[in-house]
Design a protein that fits this description.
This protein is mainly alpha-helical. It is 62% helix and 0% strand. It has one domain.
């Protein structure tokens, strides 16, 4: 349901949960989907930001293996 764009409260209600904390347990994204979202976000920022050395340095996070591994745990 989440992948189809349903709102979290709708999912919560359909599952009969009292709060979103309970529902969130079942809503973990798979690793491949997380990476796809991260790559789309990077491409979006690269398309809208002007070239600036400081921004380029910040965007280089995608090559930081430790950071990417940490993001995968979220």
């Amino acid at each position: 349901m989440l992948y189809c764009g349903r709102h979290l409260t709708e999912i919560m209600n359909r599952l009969g949960h009292d709060n979103l904390k309970t529902t969130s347990i079942y809503l973990h994204l798979d690793l491949r989907h997380r990476r796809d979202i991260q790559k789309k976000l990077i491409r979006y920022f690269e398309s809208v930001l002007t070239l600036d050395p400081k921004i380029e340095e910040l965007l280089g996070f995608e090559n930081d293996e430790d950071l990417m591994n940490w993001l995968d745990t979220l």
